């Protein structure tokens, strides 16, 4: 079976084509292409501008994906699209595009939960069996484990997502959004060496990032205002932008490692799977690996092809559902900004 997947819940438009062999075995990625709407430094991406970007590029990306995959419309069994969660206008543009293809090609539609797409693609690529999942992105922060055909949320962000915290601090520092603000903060953080005191807010299994962001913004303003050079109170060395990025990363990633370890202990798992755009961060993977190693466990993660929003994950999760008989009627092919991970029945797993 072959599925085409459309993803556009935020500023990345992705189109993927995937093959599930009829006799079983690993899925085959036939095409996985993406185009990103990049806003100017110091600015976020507005829904209307992002939606316009998706409408402009979707036909071209679909044609390119089919060419790369070496398949025709006749080979495609279903069209999968992101139902949510995400930004309303971009989601709507992708849903309309999926409906158009469904009517034009006379193919079944499958609506996919964005979060489930990340998890299933991560499991497929890494081979993780039954891990605790840390899902970290610009819009979501969740610690998840599977039980009774649901991905159960054990902990999550109480306010803004970890990726949103990083993105907004990048705006404070007027860092470029190309290729991604979080990636550029990661590179700056590699040059930092002073760990500044920031709020550490873990409440049970949940985290809060808005206070940390407010605090680091104050420090950034102090750094900008002090033209003579802000110096460390202990060693007298000058504090830099790199130190701010380093301190922010170390603090928020320590929080994520703590709640993930607690979930591992609760469910008795020795595997961690990191998915979502922030999951590309090598420092997060390193810190999580140190924790897992101390517990005799292991960490699974993917590179930017699959961590960052992409169409292939939507195609894969949609095709898993389609093979169990799940389809979405045209009249039900809506989108929603709020669609929790644990709302989806995972009937392709025991």
Give structural attributes:
12 strands; 5-stranded mixed beta sheet; 350 residues; alpha/beta
How far apart, in Å, are the first and last alpha carbons?
A: 21 Å
Order of strands, widest sheet: 3-2-1-4-5
- The whole-angstrom Rg is 21 Å
Number of β-strand runs: 12
> How much of the sequence is in beta strands?
15-25%
Poorly predicted runs are none
Question: Helix count?
Answer: 10
Largest sheet: 5 strands, mixed
> What percent of residues adopt helix (DSSP H or I)?
40-55%
**What structural category characterises the helix and strand content?**
alpha/beta
Secondary structure topology:
Blueprint: E1 2-7, E2 12-19, E3 28-36, H1 47-69, E4 78-84, H2 88-105, E5 108-113, H3 114-126, E6 132-136, E7 141-147, E8 150-156, H4 162-172, H5 181-189, E9 202-203, E10 206-207, H6 210-225, H7 241-267, E11 271-275, H8 282-294, E12 298-301, H9 304-307, H10 311-322
Parallel strand pairs: 1-4, 4-5, 6-11, 11-12
Antiparallel strand pairs: 1-2, 2-3, 6-7, 7-8, 9-10
Helix pairs in contact: 1-2, 3-10, 4-5, 4-6, 5-7, 6-7, 7-8
Would you summarize the structure shown here?
The protein is built from 10 helices and 12 strands. By secondary structure, the chain is an alpha/beta fold.
Model description:
This protein has 350 residues and is α/β, with parallel strands linked by helices. It is 42% helix and 19% strand. The chain has ten helices and twelve strands. The chain has helices at residues 47-69, 88-105, 114-126, 162-172, 181-189, 210-225, 241-267, 282-294, 304-307, 311-322; strands at 2-7, 12-19, 28-36, 78-84, 108-113, 132-136, 141-147, 150-156, 202-203, 206-207, 271-275, 298-301. The strands form three sheets. It has a five-stranded mixed β-sheet with strand order 3-2-1-4-5, sandwiched between helices. Helix 1 (47-69) runs parallel beside helix 2, helix 4 packs parallel to helix 6 (210-225) and helix 5 packs across helix 7 (241-267). The radius of gyration is 21 Å and the shape is globular. The two termini are 21 Å apart. 49% of the residues are buried. The model has no long low-confidence stretch (mean pLDDT 96).
């Amino acid at each position: 079976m072959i599925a085409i997947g459309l993803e556009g819940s935020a500023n990345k438009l992705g189109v993927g084509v995937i093959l599930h062999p009829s006799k079983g075995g690993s899925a085959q990625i036939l095409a996985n292409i993406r185009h990103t709407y990049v806003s100017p430094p110091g600015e976020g991406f507005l829904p209307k501008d992002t939606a316009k970007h998706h409408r402009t590029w979707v036909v071209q990306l679909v044609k390119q994906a089919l060419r790369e995959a070496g398949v025709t419309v006749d080979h495609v069994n279903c069209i999968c699209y992101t139902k949510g969660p995400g930004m309303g206008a971009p989601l709507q543009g992708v849903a309309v595009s999926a409906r158009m293809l469904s009517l034009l090609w006379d193919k079944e539609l499958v609506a996919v939960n964005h979060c489930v797409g990340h998890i299933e693609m991560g499991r497929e690529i890494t081979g993780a069996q039954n891990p605790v999942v840390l899902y970290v992105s610009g819009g979501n922060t969740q610690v998840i484990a599977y039980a009774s055909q649901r991905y159960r949320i054990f902990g999550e962000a109480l306010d803004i997502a970890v990726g949103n915290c990083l993105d907004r601090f990048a705006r404070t520092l007027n860092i470029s959004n190309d290729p991604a603000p979080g990636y550029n903060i990661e590179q700056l953080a590699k040059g930092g060496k002073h760990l500044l005191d920031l709020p550490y807010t873990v409440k049970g299994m949940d985290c809060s990032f808005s206070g940390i962001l407010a605090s680091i913004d104050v420090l950034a303003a102090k750094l900008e205002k002090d033209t003579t050079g802000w110096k460390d109170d202990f060693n007298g060395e000058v504090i830099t932008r790199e130190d701010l990025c380093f301190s922010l990363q170390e603090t928020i990633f320590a929080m994520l490692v703590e709640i993930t370890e607690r979930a591992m202990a609760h469910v008795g798992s020795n595997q961690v799977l990191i998915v979502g755009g922030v999951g590309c961060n090598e420092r997060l993977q390193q810190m999580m690996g140190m924790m897992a190693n101390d517990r005799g466990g292991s960490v699974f993660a993917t590179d930017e092809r699959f961590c960052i929003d992409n169409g292939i994950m939507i195609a894969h999760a949609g095709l898993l559902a389609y093979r169990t008989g799940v389809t979405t009627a045209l009249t039900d092919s809506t989108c929603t900004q709020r669609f929790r991970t644990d709302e989806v029945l995972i009937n392709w797993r025991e």
